[in-house]
Amino acid sequence: MLHPVETSGQRGSKALHDTAAGIYVHIPFCDRICPYCDFAVVRTRDDAIARYCAALRDDIERAALPAGGVATVYFGGGTPSALPPARIAALIAQLRAKFAFNPDTIECTLEANPSRGVSDLEQWRLAGVNRLSVGVQSFDDAELHRLGRDHSADDASAFLDAARSAGFENISLDLIAGAPGQSRATFAASLATAVASPVAHISVYGLTIETGTPFATWYARDPVAFPDDELVADLLETADTDLTNAGFVHYEISNFARPGRESAHNTGYWRQRDCIAFGLSAAGYENGLRYANHRDLLAYCEAIEAGRSARAFTEHLPFARRIGEAAMLALRTNAGIVDADFGRRFGIDAATVFRAARKKCSAAGLLEDDGARARLTSRGRLLANTVCAEFLTPELPGNEST
Ligand code: SF4
């Protein structure tokens, strides 16, 4: 097993800790299950919420404290805003007491659905939420209907305005590229409305048809109802152009932010920082150990109630995998692989270790490599999975690969 070196030249596991950890809390409840969704979700029910929150409380209480403290808290789902605000407040108070963080200095994000929650905004803010990630998906009512969403474009705009009026300055929204019936014109109109909204961050995700979902059945029956790959690529390029022109920085493949408003939590993920995960299906990463909790609500609650671990999967990543994955994650960002940074974090020479992948992808026009840093070109962004796969197997000398 190779242990990475610190900048001082001393070997030790501390070099793997970039900075403080993130905390992810999964809230699986949704009022309505969208037909394209493959997340671990459960229809909102009061009895299930009570049992789940009790399990979550025990899950959090048993966690070990991270050595480097906590930098971010993220409530994802599901629809965290489907929880009564007092439960969100109780979870934040528990996390704060347990992990001893200062709520004024951490980023605390709550994912929210614009179909409801306007009356809860003030309570979320007072509880310590300081960033909202709003699942808008489209500002076109026909597209929202085909996506099976339970809100209109006006609901979304009203929610964003109310959030801003309630004092939220750090608001993000999600848009989908590739919705059934979507055209370049309707997508560009959604982008324009998003830019005019009081948001500092926009995520644009290409729709994935997940096996076993109603959309998979629809797609099998009528594939032309969905934009083809060429149109989706065109939509993603439109997002790049329009949002960049509007002053947003395209700082990660799917993410755009006003300068200084990048997601600190997701940046931790892309920098392979530790993330302590709580709740159903939640995936965490702690000092080279990757894990994921049970995806089934009953299995998760029963495991916690019986005093067992909720983890359904754990994997210790060998050093070669850690740096291979660190490279893949770094390539998703506009910073790319910065050789000095990889040297500091892992004690490796990234130019040597990834020499073959860098050469091949640069020759194909997918990578810009100036000898000190390698990052995706705009064409590389569209073929990111292909590029990233080349970096999964670094060329480490001899016994350094384990
Ligand atoms: S609101 Fe989000 S998490 Fe819930 S079903 Fe729809 S897509 Fe899935």
Instruction: Tell me the total number of β-strands.
Output: 17
Low-confidence stretches: 1-17
Q: For the largest beta sheet, what order do the strands appear in spatially?
A: 9-10-8-7-6-5-4-1-11
What overall geometry do the principal axes of the alpha carbons give? globular
Tally of helical segments = 16
What is the mean predicted local confidence, pLDDT?
93
Bound chemical compounds: iron/sulfur cluster
Features:
single chain, 402 residues, alpha/beta, 9-stranded mixed beta sheet, 3-stranded antiparallel beta sheet, disordered N terminus, binds iron/sulfur cluster
Kindly describe this structure.
This protein has helices at 46-62, 85-99, 121-127, 141-146, 153-165, 184-196, 214-221, 229-245, 264-270, 297-305, 319-331, 339-346, 350-353, 355-363, 378-382, 384-390; strands at 21-27, 29-30, 42-43, 70-77, 107-112, 131-137, 171-177, 201-206, 249-252, 255-257, 275-278, 283-286, 289-293, 311-316, 337-338, 367-369, 373-376. With 402 residues, it is α/β, with parallel strands linked by helices. The strands form four sheets. Strands 9-10-8-7-6-5-4-1-11 form a nine-stranded mixed sheet, with helices on both faces. Helix 1 crosses helix 10, helix 2 (85-99) packs parallel to helix 3 (121-127) and helix 11 (319-331) runs antiparallel to helix 16 (384-390). Residues 30, 33-34, 37, 39, 41, 77-79, 113, 135 line the site of iron/sulfur cluster (SF4).
